[in-house]
């Protein structure tokens, strides 16, 4: 057995102060805790207490008494002295199997692999962790197990930069979101594109998740790299209840105009201008038939471009106007129920 720390734990009748372990001439023989034996029914509960004290996962702990390793179900109430050994993570773990079992909620299999010192923060070939998969599928018991194994809830994915909270929020797994938030997950973590979990939940209209994130003090006015906010996503997806919830949480409707809408409009305008001037140059030396064909092409292109701009305006502007009206009504203490979303979109 590899002894990485060899910390000693003394069990007594009374609770005493915790003593930190220190190196002394290369030997590890220091008392790390003195705890009341009657408070712990088995070795597992003692390991959980030591995890809280030492910030070491219980799955990496081995309690030794009389030269033998104690099982998690072993009784420790009658013991007076045990030795704690902290094991490193195994490099021979089957990462693919570990991720697969976590994805499908196989708690017993995952716990067995954790007991074999599998790293809970290991990435698969796609750059995701077991906690990310368990969160997006909503396996709450699995999420709790991985968090107990000290899986990092704020660990970003390799490519996207999304944390475990993103997948749970996107798919509306409110129980998983609540467990992650209780574990201290950063509610305002951003991906590589500047997207937050609140933006994902708002786009899908996950009202319960949005309410949880807002209650956890999520910033409703953070903007992604394209300029979109959570209110923008809710407006574009026509999620009225989500919009009202964000507005009640002081979301700024003036910041809800994404740069992408303006850029798309400008891009389409430049294309139409380029086609128009190219057609004028062509018609300068063209025959009557060629001019007629070019004119029809210009009209068709103009209608196409104008239609796309009109679609952008019709699908976005009315909902943004509704958000502004609702916000103004709330500020002036006018019942927001008088306002209704546009019926023709």
Question: What this model shows, in words?
Answer:
This protein is of the alpha+beta class and 345 residues long. It folds into two domains: 8-86, Ubiquitin-like (UB roll) (Roll); 95-264, Alpha Horseshoe (Serine Threonine Protein Phosphatase 5, Tetratricopeptide repeat), CATH 1.25.40.20. 48% of the residues lie in helices and 7% in strands. The protein is built from 13 helices and five strands. It has helices at 43-54, 95-103, 107-115, 130-137, 140-148, 164-170, 174-182, 197-204, 207-215, 230-236, 240-248, 259-283, 288-331, and strands at residues 7-12, 31-36, 61-65, 68-69, 81-86. Strands 2-1-5-3-4 form a five-stranded mixed β-sheet, with helices on one face. Strand 3 (61-65) and strand 4 (68-69) form a beta hairpin. Helix 5 (140-148) runs parallel beside helix 7 (174-182) and helix 6 runs parallel beside helix 8. The chain starts with 6 loop residues before the first strand and ends in a 14-residue tail after the last helix. The model is unreliable at 1-8, 10-29, 263-268, 305-318 and 332-345 (pLDDT under 50). Residues 11-79 form the Ubiquitin-like domain. ANK repeats lie at residues 126-158, 160-192, 193-225.
């Amino acid at each position: 057995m590899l002894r990485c720390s060899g910390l000693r734990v003394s069990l007594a009748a009374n609770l005493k102060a915790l003593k930190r372990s220190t190196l002394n001439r290369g030997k590890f023989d220091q008392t790390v805790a003195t705890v009341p034996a009657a408070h712990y029914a088995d070795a597992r509960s003692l390991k959980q207490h030591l995890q809280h004290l030492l910030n070491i996962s219980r799955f990496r702990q081995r309690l030794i008494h009389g030269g033998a390793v104690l099982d998690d179900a072993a009784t420790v109430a009658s013991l007076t002295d045990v030795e704690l050994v902290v094991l490193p993570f195994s490099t021979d773990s089957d990462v693919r199997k570990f991720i697969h079992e976590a994805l499908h909620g196989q708690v017993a299999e995952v716990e067995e692999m954790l007991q074999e010192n599998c790293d809970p923060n290991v990435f698969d070939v796609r750059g995701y962790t077991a906690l990310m998969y368990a969160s997006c599928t909503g396996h709450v018991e699995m999420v709790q197990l991985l968090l107990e194994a000290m899986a990092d809830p704020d660990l970003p994915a390799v490519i996207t930069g999304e944390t475990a909270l993103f997948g749970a929020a996107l798919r509306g797994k409110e129980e998983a979101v609540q467990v992650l938030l209780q574990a201290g997950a950063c509610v305002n973590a951003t991906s590589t594109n500047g997207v937050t979990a609140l933006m994902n939940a708002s786009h899908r209209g996950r009202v319960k998740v949005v309410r949880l994130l807002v209650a956890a003090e999520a910033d409703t006015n953070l903007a992604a790299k394209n300029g979109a906010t959570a209110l923008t996503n809710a407006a574009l997806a026509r999620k009225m209840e989500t919009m009202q919830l964000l507005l009640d949480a002081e979301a700024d409707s003036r910041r809800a105009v994404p740069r992408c809408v303006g850029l798309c409009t400008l891009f389409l305008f430049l294309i139409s201008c380029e086609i128009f001037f190219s057609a004028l140059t062509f018609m300068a030396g063209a025959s009557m038939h060629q001019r007629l064909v070019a004119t029809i092409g210009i009209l068709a292109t103009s209608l196409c471009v104008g239609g796309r701009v009109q679609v952008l305006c019709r699908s976005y502007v009315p909902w943004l106007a509704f958000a502004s009206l609702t916000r103004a009504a709330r500020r002036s203490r006018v019942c927001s129920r008088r306002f209704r979303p546009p019926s023709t979109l």
